[in-house]
Design goal:
The chain is about 65% helix and about 10% strand. It is mainly α. The two termini are about 20 Å apart.
Length: about 180
């Protein structure tokens, strides 16, 4: 056991948290921040945290089962498209922390994994958007496929990291089938 998790899950947790920390540090070290974005970044971080609290119930393929989703994905995709990488990952980290606090998440291991997961997922989407779509701008029709790519990269990374952690915790195989990654037991 490592951090109260099975060994592989604990090592994966450590990898995610260290990688997210490295992304945060490297993104700020690589550029000089435009501090004029700070008020908007704070607004989006708070919005992300509040959106984490708003849950939508969807039916599950299991009989009588329901799955809860938050609406924070919409805010996070907006952050990916509107802010440079350094600001986007910072907003994600702060917004995730605020959301976890509002949900009453008091387990530091889960809190840090969730922050790391969202930070890395936003970093992937933001990096792809910065490389491919940022120059065209949001108003250009050429950017539409690039917006989809950035959003799918965010979703795929977020889903993949979460499913991998569940698979490691439950000692189940990690499977990518259809549109989502899952741990199948």
């Amino acid at each position: 056991m490592f951090l109260g998790l099975p060994q592989r899950a604990g090592l994966f947790w450590l990898l995610v948290v260290i990688a997210a920390t490295a992304v945060l540090v490297a993104s700020w070290g690589a550029t000089s921040p435009d501090l004029s974005l700070a008020p908007a970044a704070l607004l989006f971080a708070v919005a992300c945290g509040i959106a984490e609290r708003i849950q939508v119930r969807l039916s599950s393929s299991r009989p009588g089962g329901e799955v809860l989703f938050t609406v924070s994905c919409a805010v996070v995709v907006a952050v990916i498209l509107l802010f440079p990488l350094a600001w986007a990952v910072s907003i994600a980290a702060i917004g995730s922390a605020v959301g976890c606090a509002l949900r009453g998440q008091r387990q530091p291991v889960k809190l840090l994994f969730n922050i790391g997961n969202l930070t890395l997922s936003v970093a992937v989407g933001s990096a792809l958007w910065s490389v491919g779509g940022g120059a065209a701008g949001l108003a250009s029709p050429v950017s539409i496929p690039l917006i989809v790519v950035a959003a799918l990269a965010y979703f795929g990374t977020n889903t993949g990291l979460t499913a991998a952690m569940v698979a490691f915790v439950l000692d189940c195989p990690f499977v990518w089938s259809g549109a989502a990654a899952t741990a199948t037991c």
